[in-house]
Write a structure and sequence with these properties.
heterodimer; A: alpha+beta; B: 4-stranded antiparallel β-sheet
Chain lengths: 73, 404
């Protein structure tokens, strides 16, 4: 699968799906932000910092066997 | 012995970021001649004079809002083939779903944008409780590839999605048709920088196996194979620096650096300490795609301090450049760049933090890209903490480097 034209040589393969996003939206540098889309305040960013520094979300399946904790008698 | 030559090594000051900075900064950078674009949590900034001066490109307001408003993760790329900038932005959930945006600007403009928004429901109408997070992006000869994880509203990982968008349509602002593929077995897919006719991406299987996926530019078929690497430890991670300050509190073992050079792919991730590796280090696996076999494991490690969060990219000659962090032991977190020189990694510290982060928060990704038009050189992003531990003390770093 290194030459970009041949079918992949692996027996493990799937086809992609197709979708359509249509025409783009456009803007220009001179666009003025609406009143409800101002940059967040310092306090709002501090709240963002609290959220973003929480423990990270899972990276996906790890397929590792979970540990076993026996019950207390 | 080759050395690392720092051509430009610039910290972005408060004016460049408007102090819209986070200790989980996730900076990315791209350049085209004197024009530079840098993104991070929660800013973007551009320069037209090689980084001598900067203009804030506020990701909250430069473009109209979408979903619940601008959130966080961003990636910037430059496609020299079409002379376009590509800016990817992640938006906050509105209800149980969100969008990401792919914005495109002409190379000599960097101010007039056109863009498309992508929602999970556009791929599958039943994906109503799904939102995109954690992007990666890379270009091949003719396509932009983007990966995202997708979570449900309980923040439980559900699937990873790969998008393949034609660069010609992105550049011409035409009606965009695209391909996509999804997996529920592998997450945090990392794309190979330096790809031309085929894109590769990878994720861990259980234990010491990597799954390497390939998607030829001219095909709609994704194929994969597995490769076994030597033993490594997926955590826990710890590398306290001066004063016992931890900076690896958010770290996990996902692949953060990937490249393609000739027919060989390389993958980098951070592994925890183990026998023979007393500190967390960058685990490396180089895979020959023609034989689907592991060919080399050139770890980046140090006995005294940790290496973490690697990004990688080959230059036009196939030499692999890297951008990563170094810290712990006697060192506060430092940003490091360098390249693979025969059998060794040549690295140089671009900037050292004066403090460690509060709460162990650092990361989550960096970037390393081929410079343009100096295609034997690289541009990289990093960040450090300067003169304090507050998020406002974070200074993103833009680095242009080459072989000395």
């Amino acid at each position: 699968m290194s030459d970009g034209t041949d079918r992949p040589k692996s027996e493990h393969a799937q086809d992609a799906a197709l979708a359509h996003a249509g025409e783009p939206q456009r803007s220009s540098e001179a666009r003025e932000a609406r009143a409800d889309e101002q940059a967040p305040s310092r306090e709002e960013l501090d709240a963002c910092e609290e959220r973003v520094t929480r423990p990270r979300k899972p990276m996906g399946p790890t397929n590792e066997v979970e540990q076993t904790l026996p019950e207390e008698p | 012995m080759a050395t690392v030559r720092l051509i430009r090594n610039i910290g972005l000051d408060d004016a460049a970021t408007s102090t819209q900075t986070s200790t989980v900064n996730e900076p990315t950078a791209a350049s085209a001649g004197d024009r530079v674009f840098v993104t991070g949590n929660w800013f973007a900034s551009r320069s037209t004079d090689s980084g001598a001066s900067w203009t804030l490109v506020d990701p909250f307001t430069t473009l109209p809002p979408a979903a619940g408003g601008f959130c966080c993760d961003q990636v910037v790329l430059y496609d020299p083939g079409r002379d376009i900038w590509i800016w990817i932005l992640q938006y906050i959930r509105s209800g149980t779903s969100n969008v990401f945006r792919v914005a495109v600007s002409a190379g000599n403009d960097l101010g007039s944008w056109h863009w498309w928004d992508f929602a999970p429901q556009a791929l599958d109408a039943t994906w109503t409780d799904l939102w995109f997070d954690y992007p990666d992006a890379a270009v091949s000869a003719n396509h932009l590839y983007i990966t995202f994880n997708a979570f449900n509203s309980a923040d439980s990982w559900q699937r990873a999605v790969v998008f393949k968008l034609p660069l010609d349509t992105l550049a011409s602002a035409g009606s965009l048709g695209y391909q996509w593929w999804s997996t529920t077995t592998h997450g945090s897919l990392r794309l190979t920088q330096g790809s031309t006719s085929s894109m590769y991406f990878a994720s861990h299987n259980a234990g010491t196996q990597l799954r390497v996926f390939g998607w030829p530019d001219g095909s709609n078929t994704i194929a994969w194979f597995d490769v076994t690497v030597s033993a490594w430890n997926p955590g826990p991670y710890s590398a306290p620096g001066p004063g016992g300050v931890e900076w690896l509190g958010r770290l996990d073992s996902r692949i953060t650096g990937a490249w393609l050079s000739g027919t060989r792919t390389g993958f980098l991730w951070t592994a925890a300490a183990r026998s023979g590796r007393p500190m967390p280090y960058v685990k490396a696996a180089m895979v020959e795609t023609a034989t689907q076999s592991l060919v080399e494991e050139p770890d980046i490690w140090n006995a005294e301090s940790a290496f973490a969060y690697p990004a990688a990219c080959p230059n036009a000659q196939g030499v692999v450049g890297v951008s990563l962090f170094f810290g712990g032991g006697p060192r506060q977190p430092e940003h490091v760049v360098g390249f693979r020189d025969g059998g060794a990694w040549r690295l140089v510290i671009t900037r050292s933090s004066t403090h460690g982060p509060p709460g162990g928060a650092w990361g989550d990704y960096l970037s390393c890209k081929r410079a343009h038009p100096e295609s034997s050189e690289w541009v990289a992003s990093g960040f450090t903490l300067q003169d304090g531990t507050d998020r406002r003390n974070v200074e993103p770093q833009f680095v242009h480097f080459g072989v000395g």
